[in-house]
Amino acid sequence: MIASQERPGASLSITLRGVSMAFDRGGEPLEVLRDVTLEIGCGEFVSLLGPSGCGKSTLLRLVADILPPTAGTIEILGRSPDAARRDRALGMVFQQPVLLPWLSVEDNVALPLRIGRWGKRHPSGPSPAALLALVGLQGFERVRPAQLSGGMQQRVAIARALVSDPPILLMDEPFGALDAITRDRLNEELLRVWTETRRTILFVTHSIPEAVYLSSRVVVLSPRPAKIRRVVDVGIAHPRHPRMRDTVEFARAAAELREALEH
Q: Could you tell me which CATH number the domain at 10-89+167-246+254-263 has?
């Protein structure tokens, strides 16, 4: 088991206060996010759900320090996003796995350890081999990405995001391009990884069933400029299994999210 490395005494992983974001569109501002305030506790699995183009991925990039907000403040474990990024407190999984085709699977996972000699300075972190075993790819260490299915490549991307031992994992609709069967399987794998590591996960999705199945809470965003319409506590106990999708509790949570999206 790979233990979470949340800062001792910290109760909140991510705090957003009055966060807004606008892009310059030829001299005319395009407002994407407006006055978003949210607190995410350590070890929570929180999904962002909203219509296409509303700003979910933008919000994730603000947390990751890829973009600075136009207004408001963001704290990551009590620090600025810039400090959190430099301390490798954030792992990121994108919509595409973005693996280097000339490297083996294990070398792709190990790549962040070589940047800035991170692995030399932090030798106690999880090994790439251990992370590949965690995501169910033991025995595939020496193969190239082209020899893997799309779902297996995304498992490699998850392992790579965890190799710097970040307490927070940001996931930008990582399973959206996969077929339904593979997506369901990876939902189960991700829940297993979360259960074993208890990382804080902030997850972007367009899928109501996926949000219900994975999340502790779901943040429902309005159309652009996105505001928080509702934060829904899923309220379904763990461990979760595929058959729970047929339960009354699951249907009730999905209906609440659908109603929040429509009003």
A: 3.40.50.300
